[in-house]
Amino acid sequence: MAAERLKDYRGKRDFSRTSEPFGTRASGGSRYVVHKHHATADHYDLRLELDGVLKSWAVPKGPSLDPADKRLAVATEDHPIDYIDFEGVIPEGEYGGGPMIVWDTGTWAPMGDAQTDIDKGAFKFRLAGDKLSGGWMLTRLKKRAKDERQDNWLLFKEHDQAMRPGSDILSERPESVKSGKRIEDLLAQPAQTVRKPRRLQPGKLAGAVKAPLPDKLSPQLAVAAAEPPQSSATTPWLHEIKLDGYRTLARIESDTVKLITRGGLDWTRRYGDLPDAFAALNCRDALIDGEIVVLDSKGISRFGLLQEALSTPRPRNLVFYGFDLLHLDGWDLRAVPLIKRKDLLSRLLATKNSSTSPLQYSDHVEGDGEELFDRAAALGLEGIVSKRADSKYSARRSASWLKIKAPQTGDFVIAGYTVSAAAGGIGALVVAEWHEDELIYRGKVGTGFDSSTMKDLLDRLEALEIEDRIEGSPKDTIGVRPTLTARVQYTAITSEGLLRHAVFKGLREASMPVTDTAPRQRLISDADLAGIWVTNPTRRLFGRNGPTKLDIAVYYAAVGEFMLPHLLGRPVSLFRCPTGKTADCFFQRHPFTGMPTSLTSIETANSDNEKQTYIAVTDTNAYLALAQFGTIEFHSWGTRLEHIDTPDRIIFDLDPGEGIAWREIVDAAVHLRAELQAIGLVPFVKTSGGKGVHIVVPIRTTIGWKQAHAASARLAEALAATGPDTFVTTMGASNRKRRIFIDYHRNARSATAVAAYSLRARPHLPASTPVDWQVLESIDSPEDLNYSSLPSLLTSAGDPWADINQSERDLPA
Fold first, then answer.
1. According to a count of CB atoms within 10 Å of the terminal CB, is the N or C end of the chain lower?
2. What would be an example GO MF term here (predicted)?
3. Does 444 qualify as catalytic in the annotation?
4. Angle (nearest 5°) at CA 582 between 578 and 587
């Protein structure tokens, strides 16, 4: 981390006196700078941007374009990226006191692996600047004595078109490329001593209470509203842009900074160098409410860019927008009116609030918010958040904060369509919402299509046509299987439950990046696919809008190439629904009468030496035949038949309690991934097919079931301890309210978990889908990964778990 590498730099400077940058900017590319610096004498400093810092060498005589000139270069401490643009006078008495100009700057590129070449002491690189260009070489000199501390190098120009033998670029071009000034111009100028502003005095605000920094705090949440509220003298409102990122509480205590998620998880280490930026704030302790975002080229926060940044080991371009100040220097400010808290926050962030700072103040407008709302809509922003200017901070969802989306957008199931002779295609989409096991009609969507979209939709919908139409829909509706979801913009929902002024904005479709490019052994042949057969193929399951029995058979045949490597040779339990009614479904763990002859029976003894007989899918024929027996779900053991007494996978089922949203489950899973990786394990993830997430860890087959269950229990407790306000390991609904239950009990002998790619017995048949970790963070609705969408996604993307068997590790004691 760059913060560790900047310890020497920061330790030598008093930033209350010098205007040199503390160092908060993330790495932005491959820039370089050559400073001319007059301290005890003139010298030059070469600095190259590398791995989040500026690698620096002091060159007493400066660089030369003559290859015959080999100049001494002394390695110095790493400098922060911000230093590239620094020009000014360092105060007398400070480290390096004296004037400094940006003599040259530009971009650079290594001719090999930069860090490896530096370590070897033979470092070639190219410069493209205003004064320097072409190839250059730094070569390390041998130390004259064992105790010599100075790291000496030689800097010289390589023979190429940019060389100029006999020239003196230092005399020819003495000026700064930034300001045009010479070093002599700054010698007569007094140093601008930077002094920290006086410490803020929160105790003078009405409502402030002397109190220690709270150990934990839930953030205030906003209530949805249709339009911005009207402001008046008695009910004043202020309005902020709604940001698209991760809600975060920044907790500053002495020299420690923690960045806490909405769910109470400590994600500090996930945010790279961003926590370092808070160290420069003029306070002892603080609690700031805000949002971590990444901005696009227009300065708009984009969640997709944030996900992309966080997928790298050293995330760049992260920005923390602070919008509320809850505690400062021993004073609890939650009872102070919001407008006063924000004023104090703006002054706290003022010293770090330049346009390039990673700490930004989330400004607002007061009064009526219609103009800001219209502007947000025109820019394509999510909307605005309106807040009572005189409100106290409430650690819950409160109507004193309102979120107004611009305009309302919802996701609705396409249950049918009408045709238009005039338009030559679709007249309108018939949309609906699931309510328990039935679809409820929500009206028609007849605008928002261009000719290309209309043709594509028509092709897809014609392939999904069924005889029935949804109750309440127009008589000319052509019914379709409810597998596609439309994103619809609308102004309101009427008292009859119908969308008003609905506009089609696109299909909400799941996507998966290509993850499995290696050739796969084909497990299901064309003959297998052509031979799919079931009795009562049109029988509907789970209500009149549910899939057919044939749909189930076709799905399992289509995903078999991906599912079977995770299922074959493992004991299984089947969830069968032979009549299609939920009340008639049951688990089948043991051999049954009439079962496919290719389904394998296994006789094994448990820990008490009691013999039990289970079943296993060991070939393709058994797998494909089970659809005929009403099999909807497959649940497998975490082991294989050849080592049935030693597990090779353990699973942590993240089961959300009441009040936990999908986004919180995803955040929790990502947090636990980092914890598991920190102890040397390689976690994989899949949706559960319901509301939760399964984290699956491949392990070496070195321990038995009792040991694995005990170890997974201890590990679950250790994981829960990293977020005690988020996780619980005790069973029971009462223990899980606003908590996520880490269920490790599936790691006992004969316990099962729903298999990878298995469907779940629900109306729209969602699947328990393995996904890449980055994809998990982009999923809005896991039910989009279902019997209809998943086969085509897998065909184009592959299996994110293709390497799971090569990722086995020993389970820590």
1. C
2. ATP binding
3. no
4. 60
- Are 144 and 44 members of one domain? yes
Residues 120, 220 within the same domain = no
In angstroms, the CA 505 to CA 487 distance is: 5
pLDDT band at residue 514 under the 50/70/90 scheme: low
Read off the pLDDT of residues 157-199 as tens digits, 9 standing for 90 and up. 999 989 999 899 999 999 999 888 898 888 766 655 555 567 7
Report residue 625 as tokens.
């035949």
**Which string of DSSP letters, residue by residue, matches 207-276?**
T-EE-PPPS--PPPEEEEESSPPPP-SSS-EEEEEPP-SEEEEEEEETTEEEEEETTS-B-GGGGTTGGG
Radius of gyration of the chain (CA): 32
CA distance 410 to 571: 42
Task: For Cα atoms 207, 211, 216, give the angle at the middle one, nearest 5 degrees.
Answer: 105
Beta bridge partners of 223: 402
The answer to pTM > 0.70 is no
Strand partners, 451: none
Whether the CB-CB separation of 274 and 741 falls below 8 Å is answered with: no
**CA–CA gap between residue 455 and residue 449 (Å, rounded):** 9
Last residue of a domain, one of 604, 620, 642: 642
Virtual CA dihedral for 529, 530, 533, 537, nearest 10 degrees? 90
- State the catalytic residue, choosing from 36, 131, 157, 242: 242
Quick one: how far is CA 504 from the chain centroid? 28
Residue-wise burial string across 310-332, b where 16 or more C-beta atoms lie within 10 A, e elsewhere: beeeebbbbbbbbbbbbbbbebb
DSSP 199: P
- CA geometry: angle 497, 498, 502, nearest 5 deg: 145
Distance between CA atoms of residues 346 and 352, nearest Å = 10
- Residue 557 is part of a domain; what is its CATH number? 3.90.920.10
